[in-house]
């Protein structure tokens, strides 16, 4: 018996290492292992509980397996016949009852959490109501009580419950912000889903589409930007304010004819496709081209560079998306990109 | 002689096209299944090459979605299922002391429908693009509105034809196991692999019709403008998910139960020990099969079924851990106190146990619905199901192939190459998939064509791709092994492992076409072992020597399936003349089969000789 405890003792550092490894894994704005809000925290808690129980099970099975494989291997020339054991009721009851006990330990918090996370905030006046509509391959965020619609970037305050109603305009997608909350599928209307989460820490979090939705499924990223209450209020006001078209009449016409037939900027344009109000303040273009002054990777660039890249050939950035390649000269594209990049919101 | 009928005997290719012998059909299943295993494996390798570095351009986004769809579909329906049927065909009649399956003609029909369905599905690669909506083929992505190529048409029609074969096979084995057991072989004396095949066949009987209904509905949506799943016309997209998983979850157990059976046989044989807790193993198998139908919605926790459904399906899913745990400990305690010989077959079986435990525990983790909101559709799930399907089923299949290869072909596979294959495959497997658990937890969704740089995914994806190459290398070693072994003389003895416990080891390797010259009398569990322990080296016959009734070979199963293949094409391209023409062939063959009396033929006692099937 001493011997076996010894083995277990030796395994303890390994276990501790596993836990460390788990908590050190991934980016804080993307990893489920570094939860940044209470919902992801609760889910991570359940994950840790299950991992702990399962590691114990795995260690026991591995220990028995290793022992058996070494101890009972056949020596060359061994012709002996082992005792033919039919079974052992005591042992069999033990390995039936212990798993049942483990499952009860796991099942109770699971059930509690299932019902806890299903709480309905859609009628809560203090919660921020957001209607998420997924499209191939972009995200539409509508704040029905605030009269604002935006795309690709969900801006939320850090002091409220965010109540999500998710549906799709075309195929199935799934709304996932790993560091804030688990995912919910976006079904066609009629099967709309609700969920909620909170984001008490200011910052930008990465969101993903988690259901195969076509060629650009892997590129259907979005951002969740968490700001304080005052910024949020200012942002709402700024979103609703009218936006001036460019001074240059030629450019203004171009924009009205080519861009605003599908997109909206402020009070102008159509709402069917991503709203461009304040696109200059966003973290990315098309959800996937990250705006940064300090370019490190292929998909990064300044807002203006990204806009040019996107407008020139949207299919090269996101295959299968519905944005057409518009017949524009390089100069025209640069002018449009410059104007759009300048559309910043003060919040 | 009263029994003598003139019977047409074929040779060469025609022999294989017309055979109704379960041993030959098993070989056909094996090579067809292995062929598609290679195809599916190549698709996997291409996927892993695409993902070996961030923002890779190796294949286009459209091609990638076709690859991932065809990889899943091929591996489940065209590789795993036929290879399971290969072993069931090769072994079950021998294990129960029967001369063939209950319906040899139908057995051939099952193979050929599977084969033509599989070919049809893969023709899509050359006909404008393979299906690209995932092996789950969720609507609306798979609906005509969002999938305008013929890809998904090939999926719905190919799988209907192939599924027909599976259903036919399942029914055949149910009847065979219920009706054709040798005298004395009661249910509780059946070998564990036979039990597993029995329960699997029952699952097939209940699960595949659900798939067929779903596929027919989707086919009507796609080809004939029906609206089962079209939301704008009053259909429902979530309905498809339910139908698919009501089939899809039992399918997982259809795949894994035979592996459980194989492992039970191999571990027991090479430990020289009776299977520990046989009756609880049987009970656990039945319970897993039953619970397998109660848990489909755990694939749909994020679909939004509400907390009550999620809670119920969470608990139901966790319950499956109990019978599975019973099995794991029974295997460990079969080895305990035994005399374990590490042949390649047993390496795969022993390697299976811890690997499958790892797949099982992540299954329990996934069962906790709120945590699943994080795991769902991430690489964590990819890791989980590869641990149970590759680490479970595929290791089990390879174990079974090495174990029963001498019985199927009369030659023992090369052990050195076999062990090299095991280690390459096993290490490659863990390298590929263990790391993927962490990728998923770190926020990498599954079915992604590309991932961005700087996300922390790079190294792990590279390791995973290297692992996949090792698995590929291992498979090549296995192919070499098959060829090398095939060139050796056919000299395997009746009981090449010397520790055989069940009836298949009492007859020559490979067995003569009638299997048993005299039906054996079974006097207990591990029938052959029992005789051996009493100092005998053969079974006591249960009948005198006499003429053996055999079924005639027939080309009709081949033609019937060919007809369905042609009809599938016709309807897909709305050419109804060809479509109806194909159906005429199929129904014409059915008509001839019904009206022409075929009494088979008899092998007289003086003709009996222990010669095996050609391989």
From TrEMBL, chain A:
Binds a copper A center. The chain crosses the membrane at residues 51-70, 91-111. Keywords: Copper, Electron transport, Heme, Iron, Membrane, Metal-binding, Respiratory chain, Translocase, Transmembrane, Transmembrane helix, Transport. It is a multi-pass membrane protein. It catalyses: 4 Fe(II)-[cytochrome c] + O2 + 8 H(+)(in) = 4 Fe(III)-[cytochrome c] + 2 H2O + 4 H(+)(out). Its cofactor is Cu cation. It holds the Pfam family COX2_TM. Residues 246-344 form the Cytochrome c domain. Residues 125-238 form the Cytochrome oxidase subunit II copper A binding domain. InterPro entries: CcO_II (IPR045187), CcO_II-like_C (IPR002429), Copper_CuA (IPR001505), Cupredoxin (IPR008972), Cyt_c-like_dom (IPR009056), Cyt_c-like_dom_sf (IPR036909), Cyt_c_oxidase_su2 (IPR014222), Cyt_c_oxidase_su2_TM_dom (IPR011759). It is found in: Cell membrane; Membrane. PANTHER family: CYTOCHROME C OXIDASE SUBUNIT 2, CYTOCHROME C OXIDASE, SUBUNIT II. Belongs to the cytochrome c oxidase subunit 2 family. Subunits I and II form the functional core of the enzyme complex. Electrons originating in cytochrome c are transferred via heme a and Cu(A) to the binuclear center formed by heme a3 and Cu(B). This is Cytochrome c oxidase subunit 2.
UniProtKB/TrEMBL annotation, chain B:
Its main location: membrane. PROSITE patterns: COX1, COX1_CUB. Gene3D superfamilies: 1.10.287.70, Cytochrome c oxidase-like, subunit I domain. Residues 10-523 form the Cytochrome oxidase subunit I profile domain. CDD domains: Ubiquinol_Oxidase_I. The chain crosses the membrane at residues 27-49, 69-92, 104-127, 154-180, 192-220, 243-263, 275-296, 308-333, 345-369, 381-405, 417-442, 462-484, 555-572, 578-596. Pathway: Energy metabolism; oxidative phosphorylation. The keyword Membrane applies. Its EC number is 7.1.1.9. It is found in: Cell membrane; Membrane. Keywords: Cell membrane, Copper, Electron transport, Heme, Iron, Membrane, Metal-binding, Respiratory chain, Translocase, Transmembrane, Transmembrane helix, Transport. Pfam families: COX1. It is a multi-pass membrane protein. It catalyses: 4 Fe(II)-[cytochrome c] + O2 + 8 H(+)(in) = 4 Fe(III)-[cytochrome c] + 2 H2O + 4 H(+)(out). Cytochrome c oxidase is the component of the respiratory chain that catalyzes the reduction of oxygen to water. Subunits 1-3 form the functional core of the enzyme complex. CO I is the catalytic subunit of the enzyme. Electrons originating in cytochrome c are transferred via the copper A center of subunit 2 and heme A of subunit 1 to the bimetallic center formed by heme A3 and copper B. Belongs to the heme-copper respiratory oxidase family. PANTHER family: CYTOCHROME C OXIDASE SUBUNIT 1 (PTHR10422). This is Cytochrome c oxidase subunit 1. It comes from Paenibacillus oenotherae. The lineage of its organism: Bacteria, Bacillati, Bacillota, Bacilli, Bacillales.
């Amino acid at each position: 018996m001493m011997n076996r405890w010894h083995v277990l003792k030796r395994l303890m550092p390994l276990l501790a290492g596993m836990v460390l490894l788990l908590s050190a894994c991934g980016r804080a704005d993307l990893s489920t292992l570094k939860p940044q809000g209470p919902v992801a925290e609760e889910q991570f808690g359940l994950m840790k509980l299950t991992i702990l129980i399962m590691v114990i099970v795995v260690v026991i099975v591995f220990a028995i397996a290793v022992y058996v494989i070494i101890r009972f291997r056949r020596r060359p020339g061994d012709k002996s016949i082992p005792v033919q054991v039919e079974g052992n009721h005591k042992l069999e009851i033990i390995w039936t009852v212990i798993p049942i006990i483990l499952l009860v330990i796991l099942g109770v918090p699971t059930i509690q959490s299932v019902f806890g996370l299903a709480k309905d905030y859609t009628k809560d006046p203090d919660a921020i109501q957001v209607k998420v509509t997924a499209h191939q391959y972009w995200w539409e965020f509508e704040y029905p009580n605030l009269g604002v619609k935006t795309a690709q970037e969900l801006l939320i305050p850090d002091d409220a419950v965010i109540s999500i109603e998710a549906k799709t305009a075309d195929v199935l997608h799934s709304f996932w912000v790993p560091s804030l909350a688990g995912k919910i599928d976006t079904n066609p209307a009629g099967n709309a889903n609700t969920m909620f989460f909170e984001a008490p820490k200011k910052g930008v979090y990465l969101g993903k589409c988690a259901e195969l939705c076509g060629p650009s499924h892997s590129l259907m990223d979005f951002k969740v930007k968490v700001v304080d209450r005052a910024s949020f209020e200012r942002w709402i006001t700024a979103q609703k304010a009218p936006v001036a078209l460019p001074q240059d009449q030629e450019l203004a016409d171009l924009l009205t004819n080519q861009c605003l037939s599908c997109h909206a900027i402020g009070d102008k344009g159509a709402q069917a496709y991503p709203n461009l109000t304040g696109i200059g303040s966003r973290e990315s273009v098309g959800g996937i081209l990250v705006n940064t002054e300090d370019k490190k990777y292929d998909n990064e660039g300044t807002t203006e560079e990204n806009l040019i890249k996107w407008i020139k050939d949207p299919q090269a950035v996101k295959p299968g998306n519905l944005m057409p390649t518009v017949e524009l000269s390089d100069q025209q594209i640069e002018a449009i990109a410059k104007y759009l990049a300048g559309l910043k919101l003060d919040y | 002689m009263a029994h003598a009928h003139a019977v047409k005997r074929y040779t060469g290719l025609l022999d294989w096209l017309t055979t109704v012998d379960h041993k030959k059909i098993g070989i056909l299943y094996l090579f067809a299944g292995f062929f598609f295993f290679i195809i599916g494996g190549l698709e996997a390798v291409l996927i892993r090459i695409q993902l070996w570095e961030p923002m890779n351009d190796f294949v286009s986004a459209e091609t990638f979605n076709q690859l991932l769809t065809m990889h899943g579909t091929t591996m489940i329906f065209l590789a795993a299922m036929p290879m399971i049927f290969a072993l069931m065909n090769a072994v079950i009649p021998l294990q129960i002391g029967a001369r063939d399956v209950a319906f040899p003609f139908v057995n051939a029909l099952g193979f050929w429908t599977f084969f033509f369905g599989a070919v049809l599905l893969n023709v899509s690669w050359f006909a404008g693009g393979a299906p690209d909506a995932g092996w789950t083929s969720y609507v609306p992505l798979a609906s005509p509105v969002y999938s305008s190529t013929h890809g998904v048409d090939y999926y719905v029609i190919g799988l209907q034809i192939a599924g027909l074969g599976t259903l036919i096979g399942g029914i055949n084995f149910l009847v065979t196991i219920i009706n054709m057991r040798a005298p004395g072989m009661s249910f509780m004396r059946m070998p564990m692999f036979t039990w597993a095949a029995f329960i699997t066949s029952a699952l097939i009987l209940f699960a595949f019709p659900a798939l067929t209904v779903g596929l027919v509905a989707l086919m009507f949506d796609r080809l004939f403008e029906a609206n089962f799943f079209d939301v704008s016309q009053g259909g429902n997209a979530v309905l498809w998910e339910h139908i698919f998983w009501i089939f899809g979850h039992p399918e997982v157990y259809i795949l894994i139960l035979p592996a459980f059976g194989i492992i039970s046989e191999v571990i027991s044989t090479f430990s020289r020990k009776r299977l520990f807790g046989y009756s609880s193993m049987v009970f656990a198998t039945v319970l897993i099969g039953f619970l397998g139908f109660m848990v489909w919605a755990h694939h749909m926790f994020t679909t939004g079924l509400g907390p009550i459904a999620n809670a119920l399906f969470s608990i139901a899913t966790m319950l499956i851990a109990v019978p599975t745990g019973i099995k794991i400990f029974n295997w460990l305690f079969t080895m305990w106190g035994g005399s374990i010989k590490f042949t390649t077959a047993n390496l795969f079986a022993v390697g299976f146990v811890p690997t499958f435990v790892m797949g099982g525990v992540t299954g329990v983790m996934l069962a906790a619905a709120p945590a699943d909101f994080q795991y769902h559709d991430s690489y964590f799930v990819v890791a989980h199901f590869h641990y149970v399907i590759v680490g479970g089923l595929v290791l089990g299949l390879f174990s079974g192939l090495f174990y029963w290869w001498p019985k199927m072909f009369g030659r023992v596979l090369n052990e050195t190459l076999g062990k090299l294959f095991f280690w390459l495959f096993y290490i490659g497997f863990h390298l590929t998939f263990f790391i993927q658990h962490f990728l998923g937890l770190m926020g990498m969704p599954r079915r992604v064509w590309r991932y961005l740089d700087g996300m922390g995914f790079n190294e792990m994806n590279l390791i995973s791709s290297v692992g996949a190459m090792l698995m590929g290398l291992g498979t090549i070693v296995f192919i070499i092994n098959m060829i090398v072994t095939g060139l050796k003389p056919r000299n395997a003895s009746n009981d090449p492992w010397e520790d055989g416990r069940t009836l298949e080891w009492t007859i020559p390797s490979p067995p003569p076409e009638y299997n048993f010259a005299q039906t054996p009398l079974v006097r207990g569990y591990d029938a052959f072992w029992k005789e051996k322990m009493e100092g005998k080296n053969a079974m006591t016959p249960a009948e005198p020597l006499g003429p053996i009734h055999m079924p005639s070979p027939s080309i009709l199963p081949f033609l019937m399936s060919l007809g369905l293949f042609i009809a599938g094409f016709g309807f897909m391209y709305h050419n109804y003349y060809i479509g109806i023409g194909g159906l005429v062939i199929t129904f014409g063959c059915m008509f001839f089969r019904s009206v022409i009396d075929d009494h088979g033929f008899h092998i007289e006692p003086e003709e009996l000789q222990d010669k095996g099937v050609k391989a």
